[in-house]
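**Folding the chain**
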Amino acid sequence: MDAAPIVETRDEALAWLQRRVHPLVQKIFQAEVPGRSFADIGCMWNCHGAYSFYAEAAGARDPLLAVDLGPATPSFESLHAALGSRIEFQQGDVLELCTQPHGRYDVVFCSGVLYHAPDPMRLLAAVSSFVGDTLVLTSHTIPGDEPILRFYPYDPRPETYPWETFAGGRDVRFQVRYPDAAPWWFAPTETTLEGMLRTHDLRVVDVQRETLMQKPGDPLNPQISFVTARRVS
């Protein structure tokens, strides 16, 4: 992965975005984003607003919102300046922001957040309150068709090693606060994720997936699902 950039020109910024934004997300954004308002919830950690900026470059219209628990990084600021971006950044917890007056956005993107939430249904309720039409959600999932949600902490089975790899162990306490390493609390099947979204009036219309190559050749490498859902009411 490319190191966090400090860019000076628009061309440098666009070149970095092309490398940093996942190809599947690029394809989804090219289909979903042009001419539509856009919000990115969980925009900063390890990507410095890259997905927000890519959406803007792909033709998203105002209003454009980027939200994260953490502050804007120097890389975010340099990308914002180099691109002449119109994106508004708001630091805050979406669980709190959703209780304040806010608009809805035609397309909302939320990536790599759900499985870090101790209460995933509450997190989805907060995110869905920003969705006017389309949610693009990426999340760690587990294979299978059963409507189950695996709880990782204190599970000794070897297939739960993402907990060990990404969070440094299973001895966890509930009160984990940013910017501490956020645990991988849960892993839903795609069936479960579809049901969870449906309870928030979002119907899944497309799912794509890939394997996160955390350990080359390891059959237990985590699965990542890229889900597009539409509001049904």
In short: The CA atoms of residues 213 and 221 lie 6 Å apart. The mean pLDDT is 87.
